[in-house]
Amino acid sequence: xxDTQLRVYNHPWRSIMARTRRTYTPEFKAEAVKLVTEQGxxxxxxxxSLGICDNLLRNxxxxxxxxxxxxxxxxxxxxxxxxxxxRLRAENKRLLAERDILKKAAAFFAREAT
Length: 114
Prior knowledge:
By secondary structure, this protein is an all-alpha fold. It is built from four helices and no strands. It is about 60% helix and about 0% strand.
């Protein structure tokens, strides 16, 4: 006899529904870091009171210390370095396409001339 019943493995503490990714505004992140840096809360206390993970708050604190105002650019706002990188990649893509077109045109006219 063959067992045709479909079995789905469910981990005891995992939800069947996918978790949605939470997003935080740059202002929230800056205020959360200020709780630790200016008001004297420990990272664990501040994270617990805000309902976020300790490591997330530590990462925000480190980013704010190293990058300053550019730490949390937000949606669609790239850092100047990333913006230039995006622009250069687009330009490179355009130039490669132009080169390929010119190669094909040169091959076409070379064949036609002979």
